[in-house]
Amino acid sequence: MNGWDESQHPRDEQGRFGEGGGEGGGEGEGGGVAVSGGGANKAAVQAAVNAIPKEHLKNAGIASVTVQATIVNQNGQQIAGLARRYGSGPTEIMVANSVNGKALKDPTGTATHEIGHAIDNASGLRLSRSMAPTIHADANKLSAADKYLAQHYLSNDRELFAELYKLKYSPSKKGAFGMGQKTAEKKFAKSLAAMI
Ligand SMILES: [Zn+2]
Asked: What does pTM read for this prediction?
């Protein structure tokens, strides 16, 4: 039996508060993947899905994207988002409306990050492995302060990939790696150029 192939967001890393983009599209958008569930973040998560290239959603086998009041991991901790797949089955993406009573700072970005994990998982982690040297080369040039901001991602190639995917595809443009959008785009320019 295969276990869950699971990636979790322990926290909502972005530093900017604000409304999660309210540009949610109609049911026919997002490669036919409609967001279910409800609450404050539904439109923001649908906007994230709608911005993903259709072939990415298809390749990742994303069958459902759900917004829930909260998501609790197996350790009993609330998390912002989750991408999981059971064996070779379909991939589920979940995004919370809140973590420990606090609204997510960038629910669109969280959804995009989790979709990045799903695409990487579906590749057998080939994508994060092949991109890791390029992303590390960009990350190695960061200042000590920026490395501190990005530390959650730097410790794990899968997180590096998912966060770079968010930087490229999140329509909220609220930044990545703990930095604002423009700064992160500049510092990870080579990685972005190599990203799928
Ligand atoms: Zn992650």
From this structure: 0.88
